[in-house]
Write a structure and sequence with these properties.
Elements: E1 11-15, H1 26-35, E2 38-43, H2 48-51, H3 61-73, E3 76-81, H4 88-93, H5 120-137, E4 143-148, H6 162-176, H7 179-185, H8 214-242, E5 248-252, H9 260-267, E6 270-275, H10 302-310, E7 316-322, H11 341-351, E8 354-360, H12 385-399, E9 407-408, E10 412-416, H13 418-425, H14 431-447, E11 452-456, E12 471-474, H15 482-493, E13 497-500, H16 523-526, E14 528-535, E15 543-546, E16 549-552, E17 556-562, E18 567-571, E19 581-588, E20 591-596, H17 602-611, E21 622-623, E22 628-635, E23 638-645, E24 651-661, E25 667-674, E26 679-683
Parallel strand pairs: 1-2, 1-8, 2-3, 3-4, 4-5, 5-6, 6-7, 7-8, 10-11, 10-12, 12-13, 13-20
Antiparallel strand pairs: 9-22, 14-17, 15-16, 18-19, 19-20, 21-24, 22-23, 23-26, 24-25, 24-26
Helix pairs in contact: 1-3, 5-8, 8-9, 14-17
The structure holds beta-D-galactopyranose (GAL).
Length: 684
């Protein structure tokens, strides 16, 4: 079942923290929000103490007053469970609820997300609180939905407390049954790591060289995902008892070591994302998926995170969108959106499938770590240019009513696979390939106006999940199972194209390297195997000539050998393996599979797109410069073409047929122009 947001129309919202402001300001705040077109506000995210200041004593009057006011003003509310910020009394009395550093030292009160998800007492206290909140507020007419916790696995996606070790043992026992089986699967014969009792096993602890058994580490990440999902489901099951019909349950953000599709299936109605495109400009990285990796696309690269969100919920919400300069007092300093960018980013999210866009936050907080995470309004509470942009969006989203519920359409999908990603984090020979390869494919697709999805490959998936695409790219999926290889073969037989990159399928489900030629189960499909491989020094360029064009084959080079119907498409042009195969192809049924023995450069991705006939997807209707993004949403045969200009300069384009721009209501034909940071939404 599709787990998408289901708004009546594209809606604007804001994150509001009533507990940060004098109560006398609430009404004016809500009035100003409504005037700006903000119809929903998210509250109570971190407000545990407003409900349970003293253990077991519950009070509701604070948010009763807020909700009643919201109802009176006509403001809708997303209510949160405040479990990301447990109070000081809790962690003082029950230190077993705290998360720990790898060396076992407990992380203490003063930040957020400092608890683990496994300790029985913490689960019990959270369940009791959620039961109280949901049973009290669940029927309130102002509420339209619930957010569980905040950004699971955000501040950390590893847990090292006592209770995590206890729960990890139970997870392993259930999975492997006997210690013999566990020892075999975890390869503990190496360096004499065999376990002779379950109690000898812990979540990763400090070791010399900061390396521990990689197979057990992968299991630990699977376990983290499972326990976070359990923690989320515990809350969702309670909310489901008390919510009004139609009220949704969601959570926000996308972070590591969490199988979002599984969490969505078990606990949520859909997922929302927190969009901070200026992480692309920040110095020194940050918590957002874009950090440090946005390359030359900068804020436009945020589309990659939106594609990931879409791979979980095809139509989704943005729970938080950056509104001003960002940063903690201590980290993540970022510039403010330039005039026009707040609006551009909201429309970027909508172009990629969002039907709800909520800004972070209404007003900059005057206290605390996040004193520099600027809101729509600043500390001084005066009107701002950002508020003016939100007001512009008010009418614009009303004009996009017919776009509501439509789906982003892509013919190219770049695949990801959780276990390969998690294993790759600890494997310097292939983990670091994925980031650049995926960004190069995304950049190539962006510049060639070929809308691109990210697709989660998972065991048990159906062929129907692949068939919407004409091209599937599996950049570096190390742990590709035989089952998925069989599925991909069926896809190719039916006319699909698959492109694999280096290090595909060389590991098994536990991250061990079985004694068989790479790419394992995919060897038959691509018609060849890997004879040997090497890493390339950072700046070293080895090229190959593919269909007459010279392309770089970066980071890793695998020397290939054609077998079983495979043909050599290109050979290395340097190094001791010059003249030996670099790219293989095999035709099968109506389709074909290609294997590239390297990471993907942008030029190679662009060439492969072109050869697959997927570049310039809109060529019949539009001629666009690379500076403009082209995105397509579709519903009941109606097409909505989004053109987005991320540059400070106007950009010209050409309409080969007449269109109406839903934002300006103007007719466009022939030569046209988008202003700096401008957007158009073209319909027939
Ligand atoms: C998000 C988080 C918010 C706030 C914001 C600014 O990741 O959900 O609570 O911290 O970032 O950094």
């Amino acid at each position: 079942m599709e787990k998408s947001i289901n708004m009546e129309q594209i809606t604007l919202g804001v994150c509001y923290y009533p507990e940060h402001w004098p109560e006398a300001m609430w009404e004016q705040d809500l009035t100003r929000m409504l005037e700006a077109g903000i119809k929903v506000c998210r509250v109570a995210e971190f407000a545990w103490s407003k409900f349970e200041k003293t253990e077991g004593v519950f009070t509701f009057d604070f948010f009763d007053r807020f909700l009643d006011l919201a109802q009176q003003k006509g403001m809708k509310v997303i209510f949160c469970t405040p479990t990301a910020t447990p109070p000081a009394w809790l962690t003082e009395k029950y230190p077993e609820a705290l998360n720990a550093l790898p060396n076992g030292i407990l992380v203490r009160h003063g930040m957020r997300c400092h608890c683990n998800h496994t300790s029985p007492v913490f689960r019990q206290l959270c369940a009791r609180l959620v039961e109280q909140i949901a049973s009290h507020y669940g029927g309130h007419p102002a509420i339209i939905g619930w957010q569980i916790d905040n950004e699971f696995n955000c501040e950390t996606n590893m847990f090292y407390s006592e209770s995590d070790s206890v729960a990890f043992r139970a997870y392993l026992k259930q999975k492997f049954g006997t210690l013999d089986k566990l020892n075999e699967a975890m390869g503990t014969v190496f360096w004499n790591q065999e376990y002779t009792a379950w109690d000898e096993i812990y979540v990763a602890r400090p070791t010399l060289g900061n390396a521990s058994n990689p197979h057990l580490l992968l299991e630990q990440k699977k376990f983290v995902s499972q326990s976070t999902i359990e923690f989320c489901k515990l809350q969702a099951d309670i909310l489901k008892k008390y919510r009004k019909p139609g009220d949704f349950i969601t959570t926000n953000g996308i972070f590591g070591h969490l199988d979002y599709q599984e969490m969505n299936a078990q606990a949520l109605d859909f997922i929302t994302f927190d969009s901070y495109p200026n992480f692309a400009y920040s110095v020194g990285g940050g918590v957002n998926a874009n950090a440090g990796a946005a390359g030359k696309l900068k804020d436009r690269a945020s589309g990659l995170s939106l594609a990931r969100t879409r791979s979980i919920s095809p139509v989704f919400g943005i729970m938080e969108q950056q509104s001003g300069a960002g940063g903690w007092q201590t980290a993540m300093a970022q510039q403010a959106p330039r005039p026009g960018q707040l609006r551009l980013w909201a429309l970027q999210s909508i172009a990629h499938g969002a039907d709800y866009v909520s800004f972070f936050r209404w007003r900059t907080c005057t206290v605390g770590t996040e004193i520099y995470w600027n809101g729509i309004l600043g500390w001084d509470n005066r009107d701002t240019r950002q508020l003016e942009e939100v007001k512009t969006l008010k009418d614009e989203v009303a004009g996009l009513a017919q776009v509501t519920g439509s789906h982003y359409r892509a013919k190219v999908a770049v695949c990801y696979h959780y276990y390969s990603d998690w294993d790759g984090e600890g494997d310097i020979f292939y983990g670091p390939l994925s980031g650049p390869s995926v960004m190069n494919w995304f950049s190539a697709c962006q510049e060639a106006h070929a809308p691109m999805d990210l697709l989660c490959l998972r065991e048990g998936m159906e062929l129907a999940g692949l068939l919407p695409y004409e091209l599937l790219v599996l950049p570096h999926i190390g742990l590709l199972s035989n089952e998925l290889c069989r599925l991909l073969s069926r896809y190719v037989e039916q006319g699909g194209r698959v492109v694999f990159g280096a290090r595909t399928g060389f590991k098994d489900e536990f991250g061990r390297c079985p004694m068989r030629p790479a790419p394992g189960g995919a060897a038959e499909l691509v018609g060849g195997t890997v004879r040997e491989y090497t890493l390339l020094p950072q700046k070293k360029q080895v090229t190959a000539t593919l269909w007459g064009r010279s392309v770089a084959l970066p980071l890793v080079n695998e020397v290939l050998e054609a077998e079983a119907g495979g043909e050599v498409l290109a050979c290395y042009e340097g190094e001791y393996y010059a003249g030996r195969p670099a790219v293989l192809r095999k035709k099968l049924g109506a389709g074909e599979a290609l294997y590239v023995g390297a990471a993907f450069s942008q030029e190679l991705a662009a060439l492969l797109l072109e050869r697959a006939g997927l570049a310039e997807a809109c060529r019949e209707e539009l001629a666009l410069p690379p500076e403009l993004e082209y995105a397509l949403r579709e519903k009941d045969g109606q097409r909505f073409r989004f053109l987005l200009n991320y540059t400070e300069a106007p950009q010209s384009f050409f309409c080969k047929k007449p269109f109406t721009d839903l934002l300006t209501k103007k007719h466009l034909e022939g030569q046209a122009q988008l202003p700096p940071y401008g957007v158009a939404v073209l319909t027939d």
